[in-house]
């Protein structure tokens, strides 16, 4: 991917959003390393745009801020640019092995050296810029769109207003996505690729509303031909389906309209959803009713309702063009369960992308279960260690007497002889505290909810660590339930903010200490943490040493290159 790209054939700008300046720095360091190693196309401007400090503004707010950054950087020139905008802000509490270095830099079991989500995004969208007018294509860091169209067909983003991709999906999937209500075209023929107009857009609708607004299609019914493929191909004959969203494009005129609005409004004080708040305002059938529905927002306030009304009136009447991809699939890899499903089971994504069970690693033969296998990425495993089916190991070194149970995620760790119980999540970070390099390892159960929070110390008994009452765990660890036990907002007490993870002078010691915590909980035997310096996951991310973590990965890379006889760049 290291060749220079010709003008007009590729993106002029690739912009990645970040939650804050700390994350911005981490992303810039990784982009710099990739460019140095010639792992990304040259001749493209890569930028990272952080959200402003203060109130969470959502991916819609990040989009508005990014438009401002583009104008600041390029002035009048930005109206001629083709921009890929990738939303990767947030700290990935549902997939914490992506928390430190970012979702867009999630490793995939593919390639030598390993591809990350950024490279996959650039490869998937490689044909878009040459069939696109100047404007902004908006996508998220943790989703994958795969599709097939005819040899002479291509996806074009050349219409005024907004243009979105649409994928056939079950009604159940539609309840968690955006759903398009399409104008009827009267055609009985449905090819792989169709250009349609959207009457209105529904954001995470109920099944009842999908029917009410005529968003539901029926496969194999009279007057409607069967779809050629895609998710609907796995639906039974006569099954109902809807068209759901993924990425969208806005032409420069629409982007400029949003930017001018942002300038007039000043700093944002509420969360805006790029899908729920922008797309629901589009199409001739759009009504302001959605602006009062707050079931899908994390924080409801009068400012949000006011902002939604303004955006609706700003965008009302703007067309929403839909590129219907009847032979396509949309995948999300934003949670631990999705990550394990797609990397270890015989999922369609694994088959379509050619994901490997052992990718750029030295590993004993990976055991396979009836329907799943282990997955090893950019790691060195001793021939005497065992990784059970359904588990993923990335950026790690495992010794000869290590046994990893099923359905585990092991990330960036060095493990000597030990047994890691099934359904464990283990991820080590390099941290720099007062100028000293140290290590800490987060560990919890795959079923634990890191986002679940309580407001008072009396309520922390509602929290669970590996299915065990958190108060009981504190007794085992000789820790007191005081405000000092938690970092950050004292009205938001959770496993994410609990200072329970030991800080050690070496990577392997930090893993051993955290596994000792778990072993004590499982055996109900004391394991005092009172003599350790302790961090919460939230604090680990504040103190993380990105350069050291990248150096650790590079060390494994050089060793693997030597063992696998791969030419280093």
UniProtKB/TrEMBL annotation:
Domain of life: Eukaryota
Name this protein carries in UniProt: Fucose-1-phosphate guanylyltransferase
Pfam families referenced in this protein's UniProt entry, alphabetically: Fucose_pyrophosphorylase (PF07959)
Naturally occurring in which organism (per UniProt): Apodemus speciosus (Large Japanese field mouse)
SUPFAM superfamilies: Trimeric LpxA-like enzymes
Keywords, sorted A to Z: Nucleotide-binding, Nucleotidyltransferase, Transferase
Statement: the UniProt record of this protein carries the keyword Transcription regulation: no
UniProt-recorded Gene Ontology molecular function terms: nucleotidyltransferase activity
Domain GDP-fucose pyrophosphorylase, first and last residues per copy: 75-505
InterPro entries: Fucose-1-phosphate_GuaTrfase (IPR012120), GDP_fucose_pyrophosphorylase (IPR012887), Trimer_LpxA-like_sf (IPR011004)
Taxonomic lineage of the native organism: Eukaryota, Metazoa, Chordata, Craniata, Vertebrata
